[in-house]
From TrEMBL:
It comes from the Bacteria. InterPro entries: FAD-linked_oxidoreductase-like, PRODH_bac_arc, Proline_DH_dom, Proline_oxidase. GO terms for molecular function: nucleotide binding; proline dehydrogenase activity. It comes from Stackebrandtia endophytica. This is proline dehydrogenase. Substrate binds at K98, R286, R287. FAD binds at M133, Q161, K185, G186, A187, T224, H225. Its EC number is 1.5.5.2. Residues 43-299 form the Proline dehydrogenase domain. Pathway: Amino-acid degradation; L-proline degradation into L-glutamate; L-glutamate from L-proline: step 1/2. It holds the Pfam family Pro_dh.
Amino acid sequence: MLRSIILAAARSARMEKLVATAPISRNIVSRYVAGTATEDALRVSRELVDNGLKVSLDYLGEDTFNTRQAEATRDEYLRLLSSLQADGLTPATEVSVKLSALGQRFDEEMSFRLVDEICSAAEAAGTAVTVDMEDHSVTDITLDAIHQLREKYPSTGAVLQSYLRRTEADCRELSGKGSRVRLCKGAYAEPESVAYQNRLDIDRSYVRCVNALMRGDGYPMLATHDPRLIEIGIDRATWFDRGPHSFEFQMLYGIRPEEQLRLAQDGYQVRVYVPYGDEWYGYLMRRLAERPANVAFFARSLRGK
Ligand code: FDA
């Protein structure tokens, strides 16, 4: 219930204005977001890479409805990629891109052209792009775009969400040689017709998807903070005879940082998803929805306490 309310607030312009203008404690945002500038992204990436972790940088923004903003997002990714290369942070650091930030919702063709340019720059910088997955209304067009991108840039990554009923089949389809698939539970409010609603069903689906990806010949990227699913991932890797370099774990910046380091020290590859930029509102609200216990903490900071 609380989760649905927070996810609805994530899409509310009025709520966004209220939160953005409140004396919100910088600590809340900085717990989950690297900062607002390219330099913040580079600094945090350096710290993580020096600690043996890999990184995926996300320039925050979604639901862009004008061309200028979509092109500005593309420009920031191009600037970021050339700085990452200049600073020796590739290939350990890749980028994550949301097609809606490139205008997918109002000009699909343009969003494809812009993401193609970002993939090309990533390849030139010695790294890759993973295309984030958004709500179910864009699953098909996003997977189609990735399919086309992979013909030119084979290491382009896809994201699949275990809460969607279709995802086990998508995992089987995308488990072939060369594919990179990030498997997560899914962060949007979705209707029962397309998505499992309770945690147990979502977790069970996640395990079936792990099996499909680990059994295949691709490169699974298990994006979860869930201790049980991480253990299952390790178990399935052994079962399907995979070495620690044939898959990776992924977690979000600021969530279970000790566990990120522990897994890396145990010899697993761990990639931290690091968002940066001014458009932190939607991202932050989804993180709160995942863990309503954080809401009280957040509410206190809104009141300046
Ligand atoms: P779950 O939410 O059940 O949490 C399991 C445990 O993790 C909790 O019990 C707690 O210990 C800890 N935890 C989780 N969230 C926390 C928080 N906010 N604060 C503190 N502790 C917390 N989604 C999507 O729809 N499209 C996408 O493209 C992506 N991309 C993506 C990339 C990466 C690298 C990650 C890790 C996640 C995503 N997601 C995503 C988000 C994903 O779908 C999901 O919402 C979150 O990862 C939370 O799900 P968990 O699997 O962590 O389990």
